[in-house]
Amino acid sequence: MKLYSPSTIREIKEKYGFRLSKSLGQNFLTDKNIIDKIVDAADIGEEDLVIEIGPGIGVLTAEAAERAGRVVAVEIDKNLIPILKDTLVGYTNIQVINEDVLKTDLNRIIAESGCKRTVIIGNLPYYITTPIIMGLLEKGIEADSIIVMMQKEVADRIRSAPGSKTYGAISAAVQYYCTVELVASVPKEVFVPAPKVDSAVLKLNVRKDKPVRLDDEKMFFRCIKAGFGQRRKTLANSLQGVGSMDKEEITECLHALGIDEKRRAETLSVEEFAEIANCFSRRE
Predict the structure, then answer these.
(1) Rounded to whole angstroms, what are the CA distances from 49 to 98, 117, 220, 252?
(2) Minimal CA–CA distance to 230: which of 207, 194, 264?
(3) How far apart (Å, rounded) are the C-alpha atoms in residues 165 and 193?
(4) DSSP 66
(5) CA 260 to CA 268: how far, in whole Å?
(6) For residue 86, what are the β-bridge partners?
(7) Per-residue pLDDT tens for 208-247?
(8) Which pairing describes strands 117-123 and 145-151: parallel, antiparallel, or unpaired?
(9) Span 58-82, mean pLDDT?
(10) What pLDDT is attached to residue 74?
């Protein structure tokens, strides 16, 4: 049974009386080529664990299970659980969990799996893409990589370099934790139902060693948040309130680092944000 076939999706919906949830951002992928690209990018083998976020009716789940040692699929919609039991029947290496991934202890699942390597995959709902990605990274997920589909606009922001219009807080934050690769561009027409915008698949390779040394990681993220929170303001103005320093002291700190206080956050690299954060921490 080709789970990605529009006719199969239609049959499953009719059999179970299932209605796609707009509130959960459910759009099912129907393009086998894109499915293969995601699984290929995961580069999984028989000793690996795959954690899938939002398996839907099991399209990616089944493909991953053909290659992985174990697959754990986390699905928030209880109405999809009986469907997954049906579509994934015969696979002995798949576990489906009816939970909210934001509340699931994934590192416990990884530790208990006994697998040598972990990869996370998923087709993320547009409305919650950023919280899921940042939640995984901030919790220190013990995964090798994260291969996820998301709204193209969000993917473009994550991939952006300093100085571009799309470079923002999410760009700097994700690039601190990961290196980023574009796996595939995905037109909206290959989903059922078709969303209003195109998608993209990114591979986030989780860094074993961070690209910068930080005295205080919280200060680093406070600087990023403040800088982009008022991105039209100069650094001397937008960084006020991050620590206990006044504007004059902030300017002194920036000058000491050779950074013009009239620059704006979107021009700063991760390394420059780190330098500013370390300077602020030492003056606190």
Answers:
(1) 18, 6, 32, 50
(2) 264
(3) 31
(4) T
(5) 11
(6) none
(7) 999 999 999 999 999 999 999 987 899 999 999 897 888 9
(8) parallel
(9) 95
(10) 97
CB 47 within 8 A of CB 38: no
Q: What is the end-to-end Cα distance of the chain in Å, rounded?
A: 62
Which tokens in the block code for residue 230? 């008022």
What does the DSSP 8-state code read for residue 92?
S
Q: How far is Cα 128 from Cα 134, in angstroms, rounded to an integer?
A: 10
Phi, psi of 177 (to 5 degrees): -85, -30
- CA angle, residues 128, 146, 183, in degrees to nearest 5: 95
Question: And the tokens for 277?
Answer: 């954060």
104-113, 151-160, 231-240, range with the lowest pLDDT: 231-240
Q: In this structure, which amino acid lies at residue 148?
A: V
**Which residues contact residue 83 at a Cβ distance below 8 angstroms, ignoring those fewer than 6 apart?**
12, 16, 18, 57, 58
Q: What is the Cα–Cα distance from 18 to 13, expressed in whole angstroms?
A: 5
Select from 37, 245, 247 the least CA-distant residue to 149: 37
Other beta carbons within 10 Å of 282: 11
According to DSSP H, which parts of 43-149 are helical? 59-65, 81-87, 106-113, 129-138
